[in-house]
Amino acid sequence: MNRPWGFSLIELVVVMVIAAILAALAIPRFTDSESKATWFHEQVKAGVRYAQRQAVAQRRCVFVSVSAAQLQLFYGDAACGITATPLTQLTTGAPYVLDAPTGVVMSAANFSFNGLGQPSPGVTFNVGGKPVTVTTETGYVP
């Protein structure tokens, strides 16, 4: 007796169920790092905007220090020189520090906002491969 070629309906359904389960488990792992990078990029932009707002509100220099894995905000002295005094978060009172998630790398940059909210130089740095641009005259961060 000749056996028919091909797969039965049950075999096809089982393979499709197994493939769907594997896809449901594997796909979020591939996109997780991308979503973390996007989220952190927005957090860094918000941190730079916060530094500018605090500089204007307090009429003093605020420094933004960006390293490969961290963003920190510091107050400046009367001559607009960087001090070791960290700028604090309004809600918690803790120093404003953003640590990059695993796999997200930033390019180093150091700049300040004066009491009028203008940045020392216009600067562009990368967060997870996406640029963060601080406009020269206004300090606007799009």
Written overview of the protein:
Strands 1, 2, 3, 4 and 5 form a five-stranded antiparallel β-sheet that branches. A two-stranded antiparallel ribbon has the order 6-7. 35% of the residues lie in helices and 25% in strands. By secondary structure, the protein is α+β, with helices and mostly antiparallel strands. The relative contact order is 0.16. The termini are far apart. β6 and β7 form a beta hairpin. The longest helix is centred in the first third of the chain and has 50 residues, at 9-58.
CATH architecture: 3-Layer(bab) Sandwich
CATH fold-level topology = minor pseudopilin epsh fold
Described by its quaternary structure, the protein is single chain
Q: Approximately what portion of the residues adopt beta-strand conformation? A: 15-25%
Shape verdict: rod-shaped
Strand and helix layout:
Layout: H1 9-58, E1 62-66, E2 70-76, E3 82-86, E4 97-99, E5 109-113, E6 123-127, E7 130-134
Antiparallel strand pairs: 1-2, 1-5, 2-3, 2-4, 6-7
Would you kindly provide a brief summary of this structure?
This protein has one helix at 9-58; strands at residues 62-66, 70-76, 82-86, 97-99, 109-113, 123-127, 130-134.
Keywords, please?
single chain, 142 residues, alpha+beta, minor pseudopilin epsh fold, 5-stranded antiparallel sheet, 7 strands
